[in-house]
Design goal:
Blueprint: H1 23-26, E1 38-44, E2 59-60, E3 63-64, E4 75-81, E5 84-93, H2 94-98, H3 106-133, H4 148-161, E6 170-173, H5 175-183, H6 195-200, E7 202-206, E8 209-213, E9 223-228, E10 233-234, E11 237-246, E12 253-262, E13 265-266, E14 274-278
Parallel strand pairs: 6-8
Antiparallel strand pairs: 1-4, 2-3, 5-12, 6-9, 7-8, 9-14, 10-13, 11-12
Length: 284
C-alpha cells in the first residue's frame, strides 16, 4: 500500500544575504541633473603670485603694474553625460500569490529586487569608475599583514600632498584585506564612533579615515584598497522609479516595473582625492 504523506510548506522565504550600499560615504550628488541628461562643469584656472612692485618702476608687458603682469583666467568645461538607463520587470499571477502563502507578494518582491539586484549593480559600476579614475594609482603589489599599514599610510600621505581635505576621508577595503589589517600589530583602529556612522557602514577609524568593508564581488578583480574623499566623485541617480500595476490588461495579478537612470563621474580637478592600490594576480 502506498501512502502520500502530507507536505507542509512554511511561508518563510530563504532570502539572500546582501550588503547595504555605502556609496553615500564615498560620493556626492552636489550637481543637479534636473531637466538635463548632460551637465557641463566649469574648470577655472587661477593666477600666479608675484612680488609687489612698491615703487612702481617695473614695466611689465608694456604696462606699468605694481601687482605684476595681468593674467587671464581660463574657463574650460567638463562634460558629464549619464550613460546608465536600466530597467526590470516581472509579473506575479494572482493565483500563484494566493497558493504560495502570499510569499510572492509584489511589494516584498520589489524590495528584494532593489536590495539584491539594483543596489549591487549601482555599487559595482560606481566602484569601478572610481578605481579607474583615481588620481593616484601606484604599481600593483602583493598586500600582506606586514605591509598593509605602510601601504595605507602611503595612500593617506598622497592625499595630504594633494592638499585634499583631511575630514571625511574613507578607506574602503574588502574582507580579505581587512583580515590582513587585523593581523598587523601596528594597526589600532578607533572603534568609538557614533551610531549614525555605524548605520552607514563605518566599522572604525584609522589614520583619520572612516573604514568601511565592501564585498569582493562589487569591486574590480585587482582591488586592494581605496582611499577616497567624497568630493571627488559625483554619483547622480536622475531617475529611480518603481511601479506595481494591479490587474493590468492581459494579466490577472501584479506587474512590477522598475527603472533607474544613474552614473558616476570622477571630476578632473578632484581626481587626486582618490588613491587606488591594486593587487598583483598572485594574491587573487
Amino acid at each position: 500500500m502506498s501512502v502520500d504523506l502530507v507536505a507542509k510548506f512554511s511561508p518563510y522565504v530563504d532570502e539572500q544575504f546582501k550588503a547595504e550600499s555605502k556609496l553615500n560615504l564615498l560620493t556626492n550628488d552636489d550637481i543637479d541633473w534636473t531637466g538635463a541628461h548632460t551637465v557641463r562643469v566649469y574648470k577655472v584656472t587661477t593666477s600666479a603670485m608675484h612680488d609687489y612692485d612698491r615703487d612702481g618702476s617695473t614695466l611689465t608687458d608694456g604696462k606699468w603694474s605694481r601687482y605684476g603682469p595681468v593674467a587671464g583666467l581660463d574657463a574650460t568645461t567638463e562634460e558629464l553625460t549619464l550613460k546608465k538607463d536600466r530597467s526590470f520587470t516581472f509579473a506575479i499571477d494572482k493565483m500563484d500569490e494566493d497558493e504560495t502563502g502570499d510569499v510572492l507578494n509584489a511589494a516584498v518582491a520589489l524590495a528584494r529586487q532593489i536590495k539584491e539586484v539594483v543596489i549591487p549593480e549601482v555599487d559595482t559600476y560606481t566602484y569601478g569608475v572610481m578605481c579607474a579614475g583615481a588620481g593616484t594609482k601606484p604599481a600593483a603589489m602583493v598586500l600582506t599583514s606586514d605591509n598593509i599599514y605602510d601601504s595605507i599610510l602611503a595612500g593617506n600621505s598622497a592625499l595630504d600632498d594633494a592638499e585634499v581635505s583631511e575630514t571625511n576621508r574613507v578607506l574602503m577595503v574588502t574582507p580579505a584585506v581587512y583580515k590582513l589589517m587585523k593581523r598587523n600589530p601596528d594597526i589600532t583602529m578607533e572603534t568609538d564612533i557614533g551610531q549614525e556612522q555605524r548605520q552607514l557602514g563605518v566599522i572604525g577609524m584609522l589614520d583619520g579615515c572612516s573604514v568601511i568593508k565592501v564585498p569582493a564581488n562589487r569591486v574590480p578583480e585587482d582591488f586592494g584598497f581605496m582611499i577616497a574623499h567624497p568630493s571627488a566623485t559625483v554619483a547622480p541617480v536622475k531617475l529611480e522609479e518603481y511601479k506595481i500595476h494591479i490587474d493590468p490588461p492581459g494579466l490577472s495579478g501584479n506587474l512590477v516595473e522598475g527603472r533607474v537612470c544613474y552614473d558616476a563621474f570622477v571630476l578632473d580637478n578632484k581626481k587626486n582625492g582618490i588613491y587606488y592600490q591594486s593587487i598583483e594576480p598572485a594574491e587573487k
